[in-house]
Amino acid sequence: MLKGFGNFLVKEIKELIRDPKILLGMIIVPLIMFPILGAIINFSVESAKESAEKTVALVLNRDGENYSKIFVTYLNYSLRIFEGDVATLEDAMPLLRQYNATEIIEIPEGFSSNMTERVEGNLNATASVNFYSVFSGGGMLEGIGSSKIDALVEQFNRQVAPNAVLPEKSVIVKGDIIEGVDPRMLSSLMLSQAIAMPITIMILLSYSMQIAATSVAMEKEEKTLETLLTLPMDRFAILMGKLSGSILVAGVGALAYMIGFNYYMGSFTTTFSDGKSIDLASLGLVPSLFGYLLLGISLFVALLSALALAVIISAFAEDVRGAQSIIGYIYPLIFIPSLALMYLDVNTLPFAIRIVIYAIPYSHPIIASKAVIMGDYWTAVLGIIYVAAFTLVLMYAASRLFATEKILTAKLKFRGLRKRGKTTTEELQ
Is residue 39 part of a domain? Predict the structure, then answer.
């Protein structure tokens, strides 16, 4: 019943493997992409270690007695400590920038007397210390300094007296002090958001590119493109007609993303195991109306850029299957920066890597989504300008391609592999 099945299966496998588009898109690209992603994750881990080692803390010692000095000396073994003499926490904000510090440690009056009572056996006596961590964006490295200080406090308590020092944690968001919010909990909450946004943007970009590529490739496969090009109409009008349908889809996609993202951000009120809740909206960690507008524009121009690139590349395919395979070559430009920005804050990267990330137009919606949350609108605006200029160049290239007959004859040729594929079919016959 299955006579000849084995030979035919071998023939199909050989042809698929020898198809250059499949070979590149499904085998070679992953072999390149995943080692790069592994290097990015490894870099993020090493950066986290370096960040922990370089944690800088500003100490406000309101006590000044023996145990407070011992505590500061103990912290100084593992942290870079700068002591400040200011009356209020607001006055300490300029010192944070001056010393490039990410933590404020405030030792209140009575710390040493409470420590003395605790050491002498009074278990009801605890010495509270106020910790304030600067929140800068919610990347993987966020909260490293706070975690290190927690570990040092635990070590100090073990050596002096169990639970002697009681840390009272707060965060500093956009220069405002938010009392009673654990920076590690806030970081974990923002990290879940940082993972969801790149995944959604990856899906939008890849899906839109497939739509645009299939549209052009279908015209070539069904031989209707020749008829279109013979009509008495401007070739650029044909191109814009092709793009307009995809643009409408992109616009609907961007609008749907913004509606979903608004609901997503508004739903972030999380209660942790200790009974404390964190509402991002009340902390000012959701975009403003202007921020949403910039984010929508950034996503739209990135989608438009992806569509124009898909139209150009699909012109070199012979059919729909070939167009979809060729589009796969572009996916690393979408996936690598998206996955990298899940773990890393672009501002913490080395200058050369930062330039590469900024040069890839499809990384800008993700960068903008983080920037508008922190009120950094200029980053989003400059990204929109860059991606818009890149898109105009692509559209000009696409218009030049449609203005010539190359749109009908352009092909990506891999003659050696094609020849071997034909030989396989002949051997089966």
Answer: no
Residue that the structure tokens 């006590």 belong to: 63
| Cβ within 8 Å of residue 346, ≥6 positions away | 354, 357, 358, 363, 367
pLDDT in tens, 15-63: 666 665 555 556 666 677 677 777 777 776 777 677 667 778 888 888 8
| Selected residue with higher pLDDT from 152 and 23 | 152
> Distance between CA 297 and CA 383 in Å, rounded?
10
Same domain? 303 vs 389: yes
Domain-embedded: residue 36? no
How many folded domains does the chain comprise? 2
Regarding whether 334 and 224 lie in a shared domain, the answer is yes
Alpha-carbon dihedral 156, 158, 163, 168, rounded to 10 degrees: 30
Domain that holds residue 331: 186-424
Amino acid identity of residue 283, one-letter, is: L
Tell me the torsion sign for CA atoms 59, 284, 265, 100: negative
For the beta carbon of residue 73, count every other beta carbon within 10 angstroms: 10
pTM equals 0.73
User: Within a domain: residue 23?
Assistant: no
Of 152, 181, 210, the one marking the end of a domain is 181
What separation in angstroms does the CA of 62 have from each of 65, 73, 83, 95?
9, 15, 11, 16
Q: What is the DSSP string of 54-98?
A: T-EEEEEES--SHHHHHHHHHHHTTSEEEE---SSHHHHHHHHHH
Computed over every residue of the chain, the mean pLDDT equals 76
Residue of 18 and 102 predicted with greater confidence: 102
Residue 252 and residue 172 in one domain: no
CA gap 330, 363 in Å, rounded: 13
pLDDT score recorded for residue 410 = 58
Are 171 and 196 contained in the same domain?
A: no
Same structural domain, 162 and 201: no
Asked whether the beta carbons of 136 and 142 are under 8 A apart, the reply is yes
User: Residue 3: is it exposed, middle or buried by C-beta count within 10 angstroms (0-12/13-18/19+)?
Assistant: exposed
Please indicate, yes or no, whether residues 164 and 190 belong to a single structural domain of this protein.
no
